[in-house]
Amino acid sequence: DGGITQSPKYLFRKEGQNVTLSCEQNLNHDAMYWYRQDPGQGLRLIYYSQIVNDFQKGDIAEGYSVSREKKESFPLTVTSAQKNPTAFYLCASSIHRDGNYGYTFGSGTRLTVV
Amino acid sequence: ILNVEQSPQSLHVQEGDSTNFTCSFPSSNFYALHWYRWETAKSPEALFVMTLNGDEKKKGRISATLNTKEGYSYLYIKGSQPEDSATYLCAPSTSGTYKYIFGTGTRLKVLA
Q: Would you say A110 and A21 are in contact if contact means Cβ atoms under 8 Å apart?
């Protein structure tokens, strides 16, 4: 079955460490996205990529980095520069960059800084 | 940043009741709007993609309408069932950005 796989489901990180969240899709979708959810807030866009080897900052990109070396993969690195990394992270993809067919979401990664 | 408001934040209805929620957004430069259903412990699931003023979409007992001139979309659920319990998210975008901005959602609980 096609879909998006995010791993791990739960992640604990010590302060000052970088950590990478995985997102893989086998849907042959062009575009991929990373969102963050905090209590009481909507999903906020961190980074998005519309084609391989290209990506753009979303609304809250500071302290994060991404790469898009393969169409299937869009990993997110939470760096030590991210002041409040504890959150729920969702990855999504869409067939075309305009999102006109809607997004397919992964199941999320919950990151906790200890 | 696009300001998206969803109301109510949460509601409880009895099984069999019909209900509706609102998504409000700035009407200028509208491009498209998504509705998603997000059940606990699952991934958000796309319900509708709406692009034209006056659009009406339907999927079983759930339907949605769009008014781009005044900047709102309604989601209706007819004859609510316990399995409709979820958070319903809307996400509009503006022309040329391809970025969808999510509201905080409406949390629906259908009581049996």
A: no
Residues B41-55 have pLDDT tens digits of 899 999 999 999 999
Paired tokens of A75: 């990993």
Give the pairing of strands B10-14 and B106-111: parallel
Q: Which residues pair with A33 in a beta bridge?
A: A48, A92
Q: Select from A42, A58, A59 the Cβ nearest to the Cβ of B4.
A: A42
- Whether the CB of B104 is below 8 Å from some CB of chain A: the reply is yes
Name, in order, each residue with C-beta under 8 angstroms of B18's C-beta and a sequence gap of 6 or more. Answer: B76, B77, B78, B79, B80
For A82-102, how does the pLDDT look when each residue is reduced to its tens digit (9 = 90+)? 989 999 999 999 998 777 788
Residues of B in contact with A108 (CB under 8 A): 43
